[in-house]
Write a structure and sequence with these properties.
Strand order of the largest sheet: 6-11-10-9-8-7
Shape: elongated
Distance between the termini: 60 Å
Radius of gyration: 24 Å
CATH architecture of the largest domain: Alpha-Beta Complex
CATH class of the largest domain: Alpha Beta
Number of helices: 11
Helix content: 40-55%
CATH superfamily of the largest domain: Quinolinate phosphoribosyl transferase, N-terminal domain
Number of strands: 12
Number of domains: 2
Length: about 300
Amino acid sequence: MDNAVSFLQPLSLDERIRAALIEDLHPRGDVTSQALVPAEKIARAEIRSKDDGVLAGVQVLEPVFRVTSELLGEGSAAAQPHIQIHLNDGARLKRGGVVATISASARTLLVGERTALNLICRFSGIATQTLQYASMISHTKARLLDTRKTAPLWRDLDKHAVACGGGLNHRHNLADMVLIKDNHLALWGAQDPAGAVNVARKKFPNLPLEVEVVDLAGLQHVCRNSEPDFVLLDNFNATRLREAVSWCADFFAREKKNSRPPLLEASGGISLETLVAIAETGVDRISVGALTHSVKVFDMSLEIFLTP
C-alpha cells in the first residue's frame, strides 16, 4: 500500500446504529416516554408493509432494538428484545403483510422505532425501485448497475438493497477496481485514455479496469490502443450508443479477432423515461445513480400492542 489510510476499517453495523440512536436520544433521552410510560412495561410490536414492493434491510432490526435496550440500561431478562423475522430480504411485500414481530420493553420499542423504520424503509425503497428499473429492461441483455452515490456510512446496505431488487453492484469502494475518468486524465496531465489504461494495468494487473470516454472517437482510440475490461460511455444518447455498440462489434470481429471486446456501459442522467431506449441499443451495462441517490422510501409502520 502506498497511502496513509490503508489501516482504516469501516464502522460496524452496531457502531453505526448506536450513533444513529444517540442522535435521537442525546442529551436527555426520550422525555415523552419517561413522562408517560413505566420503565417495567413490556409490549409487542409488528412492522407491517403499507404497500407492495421488495423487502431489504431486515438485518438492522435486531441490532437496533438490542442496542436501544443497552443504551436505556435495561438489564432484566423480561425487558430484553425478542425479534421474529417473518420475511427475508428480497421477498415480495404485500400491503398489510407483517415483516417482523418484536417483543421488548415499551420504552425500547418507542425509542428504536424511528431508527428502525428510517433504515428498513430506505433499503426497501431502493430494492423496490431497482426491481422497477430491472423489470423494464429484462427483454434486453443489458444489466442494471448501481453507483457510489449512496448514503454516507450505509453504502453496504444500499448496495445490498440494489441486489435484492435484481440489480448488480458496481464497485463498492475506490479499491475495488480502476475507473479512469476525465478528472484523472486532467490530473495525470495527458488526455490519452488508452495511455492511462496501459499505465494503470501495469500498476494493478489483477484488478478490473474501466475507462470513461465521451464520444465515439474516444472509444475507437481506447479499443485500438489498449485493452480495458469495460468502457464507460458517458452521456451518450441512444443514437450514439447504437453507433458505439455497432462499431465495437465490427472492429473486434475484423481487426481484433483474438481479443475479447470490452463490455460497454452507458451512464449519465439515465431515468425511467430513457432507460428502455438505452437498453435496446445493445449496451452490456447501464449504471444508474438514481437507484440510491433519489430513492423514494418504502412505506412501513410499527404498531405497538400491550402484552397481557
